[in-house]
Each structure stands twice: as structure tokens, then as C-alpha cells.
Amino acid sequence: MIATETQKTIKSQKIWAAITEFLVFTLPLLVFLSILYGTLFWNFYVSMADWVGTAPDYTFSGLKWYHYLFNQGRFWVDVGNNLKWLILGVIPTSIVAIFLAYLLELAPFRGVEAYVRTLILYPVAMSFVVTGTIWSWMYQPEKGVFNTLLGSVGIQSPFTYTNNPSTATYWLILIFVWQYLGFSVIIVQSSLRTSELQEMVEAATVDGASKLRTLFAVIIPNIRAGILVLVSLLLISTLKVFDIVWIVTRTGPGIATDVLATNMIVTAYDQRLASAGAAIGVIIFLLAFIIVVPYTIYAFRKWFE
User: Fold this and answer.
1) DSSP classification of residue 272
2) Partner of 276 at 20 to 30 A CA spacing, among 66, 206, 215, 237?
3) Could you give the CA distance from residue 302 to residue 299 in angstroms, rounded to a whole number?
4) How confident is the model at residue 109, as a pLDDT?
5) 93-134 per-position pLDDT tens digit
6) How remote is the C-alpha of 226 from its chain's centroid?
7) Residue 279: other Cβ atoms inside 10 A
């Protein structure tokens, strides 16, 4: 009789433990996933509707707004600019971060290295609005910081920076590189400071390898996982770029610096084409899925190897 009561008590405790775990862990996760994917599917449905103006209209219109976007020259300008951000925002940042992190590790005075690292990391703490405003002042062709400095030494600057439609996007990408460089250096440095890698570097030094050869033959192959994670994070950041473009140029001159995210805001809220704006949102999601997600999965598999 006592044994039966004990079994019932244990069973009851297990049931309550399972219920508690469900309420604390599983239920919040399910709510989060429901909201996340629910809004995603709702956005996809809106992109197939015929919502024009402020009043919702969920009349099914198929791929009407996707055809509309594909026939817009602005849409293809956006795709080209987003590709420029993906390539030029990620590769130079990663390469400079690797060299800079390595130089900081070689610094003879640890105190100096800490100060330099803080200075490099500082831009990450700034909001995009502040960063964009500051760089707008610096880029002004007539009274900006860069051209004023060049003029003070007698050089007539040929640069008009973001006022030139053919180069404006590249000057914006430079702001991104500046802001994310410190963050990238920290990630690379964290990969450099493993005991196994330090032992390999010491062994290479004893064998007489130069610093440059040690970097390419020993360090980079052994921080591959950290580099992959860094590239994944930078890809995500460049794909969702919006703030810098909006603050510095407002997609101008004309639409020279426009990207998909800014086009989505203009289409949905300025032109009141809610379904077309939702369609651009779906396209951005698909780009992230095609480009970033497989790479991220690959990176994390390498990380846990």
C-alpha cells in the first residue's frame, strides 16, 4: 500500500515537472515562433492581395505586385546596390579586421593595445543616426571635413562624395566598414587567443617563420571558424542595411543609393502601395534565405567540428 502511494507521488511529481517545463520553456518558444512565422506568412499573403491606400484590401491578386516590381527600373537598381553592399561591405571589412587584429596581438605594450582596441570599438556603440549625421557633415563637398583638410594643404579636391551618383553607394559602404571594423576585430581577436593556436604560433616562431608567413600558414587556417561566423554576421548586416542610406542620402542623388529596404518604406508608406511593399519584404527574406542562411548553417557546422 505504501509502495503504491509512493509511486503515485513520484508520478505526480513527474507530471508537474513536465507541465512546469512546458510552461516555462516550450510555451514561450511556441508563442515566439507563432508570432515570428505568423507575421511572415501574413506579410506573404498581403503581397498577394490588392491592398492600395490606407484601407486594407485582401482581395487575392496573385503575382500582380511582383510583376509590377520586376518591371520597375528602380527595383533592379536596388538589387544591384544590395549586391554591392554584400560584396564590398563584407570582404574589405573581414580582411582589414584580420590584419588589424594580428597587428594588435603583435603590439609590444599591452596597455597600448587595449587603448587602440577601445578606439576601434567605439564606432560600434554609436547609433546609425549619429553615424550618418556625422559622416554627412564630413562628406559635404564645399564645407565638409575631408575637402576642408585637403584645401588647407593646397589641394583642390575632386571628390563630391555622396553627391556623385556613380560613386555615392561606395562612400556609404565606407561608413559601414568604419562602423563594423571594431566589432570584426574583436571577433577575430577572440579566435586568436586560444591556447592551441598560441602554441602553434610559438612553434612557428621557433622554426624561424616570418610574421607574415605565420599569419597565412598558421593563423588564418586555424581561425577559419571565427572568420566564417564574422562573415555570416556581416552578410546579415549588409543585407538589412537601411539606416545609413536613409540618413545620409535619402536614396539620392535620384535613386542612385536606393536599396531594397528603403524602396520598401517608400513604396508602402509614401506611395501607399501596401501589397507592393509587402512583396519587397518577401524578396528581402528570400535573398536572406538564399544567400545568408545556408552560409550561416555551414559556418556553425564548422564551428562545432
Assistant:
1) -
2) 237
3) 5
4) 66
5) 999 999 988 888 877 666 677 777 778 888 888 888 899 899
6) 16
7) 28
Q: Residue 299: what pLDDT?
A: 63
What are the respective helix, strand and coil percentages of the chain, to the nearest 5?
A: 80, 0, 20
- 21-to-10, 34, 36 alpha-carbon distances in Å: 16, 19, 22
Angstrom CA distances, 270 to 82, 220, 280, stand at 21, 48, 14
Q: Which three cell numbers stand for residue 127?
A: 547609433
Q: Which of 256, 255, 247 is nearest to 137 (CA)?
A: 247
Q: How many CB atoms lie within 10 A of CB 87?
A: 12
Residues of the chain with pLDDT under 70: 1-3, 108-111, 292, 295-296, 299-300, 302-305
Burial class (CB in 10 A: 0-12, 13-18, 19+), 241: buried
For residue 253, cis peptide bond before it (omega within 30 degrees of 0): yes
- Amino acid identity of residue 64, one-letter, is K
Residues in the chain: 305
Residues with Cβ within 8 Å of residue 131, at least 6 apart in sequence = 123, 175, 179, 244, 247
C-alpha grid cell, residue 33: 515562433
